[in-house]
Amino acid sequence: MQNFVHRGETLDFLAPYNVNGGGGFKVGNIFAVAVETVLSGAALAGMVQGVFDLAKDTSTFNEGDKVYWNDALGQCTSSRTTAAGVANLEIGYASLTNPSGTNALGGGSGDATVRVRLTPTSFALIGSSDIDPGLLQKATVALSAANILAMNGTPVPILPAPAAGQVLVIDQIVVQFKAGSTQFASGGAVTFQYHGTSVNPHAGNVPAATINSASSSNNVLAPPSAVIQPPTATGLEITNGTGAFTTGNGTAIVTVYYSILTLG
Fold first, then answer.
1. Residue 145 pLDDT greater than 60, yes or no
2. Is pLDDT at 118 greater than 80 in this prediction?
3. pTM value?
4. Which of 80, 100, 162, 261 is 20 to 30 A from residue 138's alpha carbon, by CA?
5. What CATH number has the domain bearing residue 147?
């Protein structure tokens, strides 16, 4: 094709401020990672695709969480807006899981960086005021064996709470259980609930026998069989309320398809 220019992994900019090599910066609605250190106004090449360890604030992240850029502070954050209410730019997703070793930084409030998979398709997606939050979205969260063993008493966050006056509407939940070398035992039915409530956004559950099995499995939870009332400004979590699992070392991946509804 004669009109092909390049792959678009790196773009050219004029630096909006002093930028350090490897640091993030924002020009208009585009986020990039600088390939060199330059002063404000200088020509600058920035990578807009890839996975990078970027400076963050005290936010904590789970695998697959959305990552936003606070341009005023030059840091990644889990907040859609700044303390002053200014929309932060959505730049990608936390990519922390490393099955062959220690997970990447980003899960702790004291971590200086978070590993981010940049999302080129998020150009211009600055915040909930710029997109239709009612569109179907997808979130993926990895559960460690420690999460599964502890979630009877410590439910694991799956989706963060939306803003005041908004509710999470769950379309479908998929739990991919990956059996380990040691089977889980005991436990109870695994369910999802809105944080701090007993409201389940699904019918049925994942039986304890599925988690205790020596076989891996894919489990799709059906929508509610009756009317429910999702609480406003409340996140989603996974738990098992009837007893803790013991001994096992399997893992799981939770995928949730959802939308955010603003109450009139």
1. yes
2. yes
3. 0.54
4. 100
5. 2.60.120
